[in-house]
């Protein structure tokens, strides 16, 4: 669990930056912002996928759970970005 948390924190700032830029670009009707959203979502899923794969050893179960966890993690990180930066 500690390795998963450390890996998630390493991806945190890059994930939030890509999601934020993607939302900003979509607000300006630049549809290349979708690539930033996809990249941020992938960054949100990667640490959880590896952590779950190491913990359970089941590839497909780890991948499907990481997709849900990554969606929640990316959304919460983006919505509470000001609180996260205030805590640091």
TrEMBL record:
Protein name as it appears in the record: Uncharacterized protein
Keywords linked to the UniProt accession: Membrane, Transmembrane, Transmembrane helix
Transmembrane annotation, as ranges: 6-27, 34-60, 66-85
Species of origin: Nesterenkonia aethiopica
